[in-house]
Amino acid sequence: MDLSRYAALFLTESREHLNAASQQLLEWERDPKATEPVVSIFRAMHTFKGMAAAMGYANLTELAHRTENLLDVLRSAPSGASPQMHDLIFRILDALESGASEAMAGGDAGLDFTGLLGELDSAAAVAQPTGSWAIPEQPREVAVPATEGRTVRVVIRHGAVMRGARALLALRRAEALGPVGLVKPAPSAFEQEEFDGRFSFRLGSTATDESIHAAITSAGEVESVEVGVEAQVAAPGERGEVAERRRQIRVDLQRLDALMNQVGELVVAKGRLAELVVGSSPELQAVSTRIGRVVAEMQSEIIQARMTPVWQVFDRFPRAVRDLSRQLGKRVSFEVEGEEIELDRAVLDEIGEPLIHLLRNAVDHGIEPPAERERKNKPAEGRILLGASRERTSVCIRVVDDGMGIDREKVLQKAIREGLVEPGTEALSDDVLLRVLARPGFTTAAVVTDVSGRGMGMDAVVSRVRGLGGSIQVESSAEGGTTFTLRLPMTLAIVRALLTRVGSERYALPLASIAETVEFNPMMVASVQGREGLVIRDRVVPTVHLRERLGVSGPAHQGRRPSVVVEVGGRRAAVVVDALVGQQEIVVESFDGPRGMLPVFSGATILGDGMPVLILDPAALV
Amino acid sequence: MSHSVLVCDDAIFMRTMISDILSQAGFEVVGEAETGREAVEKYRQLKPDLVTMDIVMPDMGGIEAVREICKSDPDAKILMCSAMGQQALVVEAIQAGAKDFVVKPFQPSRVLEAVQRVIG
Prior knowledge:
The complex is a heterodimer.
Chain A: H1 4-30, H2 36-55, H3 58-75, H4 83-107, H5 114-126, E1 141-142, E2 150-156, H6 163-175, E3 180-184, E4 198-203, H7 209-217, E5 222-228, E6 251-252, H8 253-276, H9 282-306, E7 307-309, H10 311-314, H11 317-327, E8 332-337, E9 342-344, H12 345-366, H13 370-375, E10 382-391, E11 394-401, H14 408-417, H15 430-437, H16 444-448, H17 458-467, E12 471-477, E13 481-489, E14 494-502, E15 505-510, E16 514-520, E17 525-528, E18 531-536, E19 539-545, H18 546-550, E20 561-568, E21 571-576, E22 579-587, E23 601-606, E24 612-616, H19 618-621
Parallel strand pairs in A: 8-10, 15-24, 19-21
Antiparallel strand pairs in A: 1-6, 2-4, 2-5, 3-4, 7-9, 10-11, 11-13, 12-13, 14-15, 14-22, 16-20, 17-18, 18-19, 20-21, 23-24
Chain B: E1 4-8, H1 12-24, E2 28-33, H2 36-46, E3 50-54, H3 62-72, E4 78-82, H4 87-96, E5 100-103, H5 108-119
Parallel strand pairs in B: 1-2, 1-3, 3-4, 4-5
Helix pairs in contact in B: 2-3, 3-4
């Protein structure tokens, strides 16, 4: 294309836009709260950028682009612009105007905007965000995937621009042929610049493979289309026949909840029945056993029906992280792993907010502004990972950032001032750090920056997770970033627990976090760093005397007694109790404990005999 | 008969460039619009075979204009013109009903390929 034809047009029109932007900038200085001027300048900058890019003027394009980014942040908070910022934008407008003339004379390559770009970075770092973090309402329905139809796998050509948008176009073409479901990755991934162009979906259509192929290819930039049948192999002799079709219906989540509650009651009653029939007639015992088996099957079916892939909640996070990082002028690449991992819908519903809080913390307090990162020899773009994985009977969700880490020194000082740790404490362990962060009102925001915390605080996050029978850990090192690890039960309604007794009270410990039970023998006690530990097969495991921890009065047991070794995230503790009562399935009721309650309980349950029992939080014991 | 086109962009520079590319390929540019609102109005009057739509425009952006146009004519053939790094917006535009997109700076061959796919 002969660009010289457009050169004159470029020059006159860019001048017009830059002049208009100057006018608007004056307007903005007069009335810093007005939004219209910012929007106009933003648009002028965007238009200028497009024209400069078309002319091939890379340096002008870059300066306009970075200015546009700053304006994008300021656009949602125009009063966040300081007089220095107004001044900076004035100088940029001047630089662009003279730059445009120089570029026309063939001098774009010689333009040097390093100084202005540096100032833009610093300005972006202080631009204050506004806006709320409302989580969009999710339809409260369990979407039952269509297993009918054929699986279609599509690859968008590697060099194609905006492969995500292209993928969406291909999907549109497929939708013209029939209903489309089970899109993997979730369509929100299409908005990500990193999307690799590979996706698959199920298509319910009678069209031939060839016409599906042709329709999708017509979206453009398609490298390959694979139309196949899922590995549902038809039985021998039935070839040519359609494999057995599974039928699906959609069920209101409340129905499933109600059913789950009833099954929960049934489980408790079953437990009670099993206790009562001991010693009675063999027929009665046989019936009890049979009921027990059926109830267990019902329970596992209903739990299966409630399992929902985590992407249903994770899907809204990329947009939220993108918006916040933009508002804050930070550059963040956000990755999601394990989005196909399934969790009980009820657990999933509860963790959206805590995760948003952790992600917000990561963007706000973790990831540094690009300029600061570059000074530290880190990539300008920060990295946040949200990963889900299966761990035995629980699901582990990690929020990892490669930002500045939590400033332990500041947290420690504040914790000492507030009497949360002993004066003279020299360093905070990860455990203590979490405990300090989780104090009501003790937010990272109040500690690390002066930006006030919004939404739920760290204390609410911790208690929500514990309320679900889960645990939360933090690892953070200066400059090494911060990792929050949440371990959640796959289902919260019913868990197997070990009942223990201290004094006259019974306490439940979730079986999922119990490694073993061993005898606590005072002869086998060792002292490590001033802490008592129990020697178990050449390893010293710290002991927790539940009687002391809970402040139970009455004569303490001496001599040998049972202990329960709990393990959370690789750390163990031997919990010493008076007696073991037995294993039982319990229906967990989470609760918000009253203030001042010992932070060692995650919930409560009512046993078959009608007595309430508190559930111990293993994470608070190790 | 050549296809009629409505070109929507707030910069004359861009409108000229797109118009040149399309008319050289035998299309007839029947109208131009500088704002989203104007695009919606002109679409109603002119009923063009094809629309090229910038995303960022004053007085109703391109995405909103797509939504408006598709409300009355779901089969409207709209080609989005986007800058690099606007993938999320392009995705939004496609969800609103746009049929394809090209990314600035324009290469005439790319623009024409996309137009062919849209006119199909």
